[in-house]
Amino acid sequence: MLKIGQILIKKGFIDSINLNNYLAKQREVPGERIGKLLISEGIITEEQLFSALSEQYKIPLCQEKDFKLEQNLGQKVNYNLAVKYKLLPVKLKNKVLTLAMQEPLNLAIREEIKSSTGYRLKIKLISEKLYNKIKKEIYGDQYQKDQKVLIGEVEDLLKEEKIKKNNLNAIVDDAPVVKLVNLIIEQAIELDASDVHIEPQPDKIRVRYRVDGILIEKLSFPKGIAPAIISRIKIIAGMDITERRQPQDGRLEKNINGQLCDLRVAVIPTIYGEKAVMRILPKKGQLLNLEKIGFTSVNLNNFKKILNHSSGIILLTGPTGSGKTTTLFSALDRLNDPATNITTIEDPVEYKLKGITQIETEEKTGINFLTSLRAILRQDPDIIMLGEIRDEETAKIAIRAAITGHLVFSTLHTINAVSSITRLLEMNIPPYLVASSLSGVVAQRLVRKICPECRKSYYPVRTGIRKLDNLISEGIELKKGRGCSVCADQGYKGRVPIHEVLMLDDHLRELIMQGQSEAAMEAYAISKGMITLKEDGLDKVVSGITTLEEVLRVTG
C-alpha cells in the first residue's frame, strides 16, 4: 500500500520537498496526522486528501447524492455510535447496509456496527465536511430529543423523599444527571464552542454556548433541576458541593467522542442560584505558524522586525478570547531553538511547546505571576513570556527584565496598540522606562469568517466609512453568509484575527518622553504606515473573508 504522502505527490497535490518539510513538522506534535497538518497549513484541501485516501484504501469515496434520506436512516445506526466513530448509514438494500466511515479500515468498529444492526456491511469513505453536513439531516437535533427524556428522569428523581430533604449527594452520581451534564458538554464539542454558560433565570436554567465569539442559547431546563446539574459539575471539577455562597474554581479532563479536553470551571452565586461557566481547551496537539494565523503581509513583516530585537518588551493587546495566546506562542515557536532559553508563566497553560520551560500559576500554593517572574530571572532566561501584566509590581519587574538584556513577551487588556503605552504609564512606570524598554505592540481582535457553504455575493450601499465608500463607488462585490446547517444558521464559520502593529522608533519614544497624548502618538504611527484594526478588518471584508458588520462589531 502506498503511503498517503506518495499518493498526494502522484496526484500532483504536493511536491516531495514540501512533503518532507511537513513530515518533519508532524513529528513535533504527537498523534498529528500528516493529512490534517497539510490541510491546516493550506497546502491541500480536504477534498484532495480524501481523494488520496480513497485511492490508498481502495474504498470508494461517498458523495452527497449517495444518501437515501427517505429510508429513515437514523433508525439504522444508533446516534451515539455514529458520533463516537464518525460514521453514517448511507442506504439499506437487500439487508446490506452501506456505511460511510472516516476510519474504514478499523475492523473492530465494523464488527460492532454489524453486531448492533444485524446487517451485512458495504463500506465507503466519507470526508469530515460531508459527515458533519449529512449527520444533521439524518439525525436532526438529537440533543433536543435526548434532553427531554433526561429532564423527565431527573425530575422523577427529585420527587423522591430523600431528595426533598435537600440531599443532592444522593442524585449527582445517578445516571440521568450524569447523562444530562455529559449532553451539555457533548453539544459544546459538537458546536466547536469555547465556553459553556449554565445560567439560572427566574423561571428556568438556560445553557448558552460561545461559538466563534458569540453566545448562542441552545438548551433550557426547568429551574427545579438546576441544583442537581450544578452539583454534578462541581463534583467532577473537584469543588466543594456544600459551599453555595462563595465563588469556586475547578478543572477536569474529559474524553468526549474520542477528543480529550481540558475544562476550566468557574461557579459563582447569583440572585437566582449558582451559575457555572466551563471553558473548553482541546488537548490535541496544535501547530503554530506565524505565517498561517491571519496576518496580512505588511503586518507580518512589521511583526517579524519587532521579533528580531534581542531585548525589550513586546506586548499583545486585546480583550479575553481575542487570540493573543495563539499569536504569542506562534512567535515563541518561531524563536524556539536549542541555543535559546525560553520560559513562560501562564494561567492556564493552553499550548505545550517542546523545548520551552512552562510554568502554570497556582494561587493556592503561592505560585503567581510575580513570584514566578522573580524566580525565573535567576534561571538565566533569554526570552520570558508572562501571560499577563496585571499590576504595577509585575509591570516594573517585567520592564526591568526587558532593559537588562531579556526579550519579554506579555499581554495587556487595552482597546488598541497606542493605549498600551498609556496603560503602562498609569501603572506608575516612568516614561523614560516605557520609552527605552518597549519594542512593539500588537493589538488584536477576532472576526468571524463567512461560512463557505452558504456564502453569497451582494452589492452594499454606502457606509460612511471613507475607505470602503471609495471602493463601493466603483461597484465592489462583497460576500456574506445566508445561514445553513453547517454554520448553525449564523452565516459564519470559524474566526480570523485582525491586527494593528505598532513599531517604536526614536521619534515615537520622544513623544512618550514628552507626555504627548494618545491621539498624537497614534497620528504619528499612522503617518509612518501603521494599519489600524479597522483598516485591517476592511481589507478582509474586501477580500471576502468577513463582513462589514462583523468588523464594525469588534472595532466599533
Task: Give the helix/strand class.
Answer: alpha/beta
Helix content: 25-40%
- Roughly what fraction of the amino acids lie in strands? 15-25%
Biggest sheet, in brief? Answer: 7 strands, mixed
- The CATH superfamily of the largest domain appears as P-loop containing nucleotide triphosphate hydrolases
Rg is 26 Å
CATH architecture of the largest domain: 3-Layer(aba) Sandwich
Description:
By secondary structure, this protein is α/β, with parallel strands linked by helices. The chain has 3 domains: 4-139, Type II secretion system, protein E, N-terminal domain (GMP Synthetase, Chain A, domain 3, 2-Layer Sandwich); 142-282, Beta-Lactamase, CATH 3.30.450.90; 290-445 and 496-530, Rossmann fold (3-Layer(aba) Sandwich), CATH 3.40.50.300. Helices cover 39% and strands 24% of the residues. The chain is built from 22 helices and 18 strands. It has helices spanning 4-10, 16-26, 34-40, 46-57, 79-85, 107-117, 128-139, 142-158, 161-164, 175-190, 226-236, 297-307, 324-335, 369-376, 392-403, 419-426, 431-437, 466-472, 506-513, 518-527, 533-542, 548-555; strands at residues 87-93, 96-101, 120-125, 195-200, 204-211, 214-222, 248-256, 259-270, 273-282, 312-317, 342-346, 357-360, 383-386, 407-412, 438-450, 455-458, 478-481, 492-503. The strands form 4 sheets. Strands 12-11-13-14-10-15-18 form a 7-stranded mixed beta sheet, with helices on both faces. A hairpin with a 3-residue loop joins β4 and β5 (204-211). It is globular.
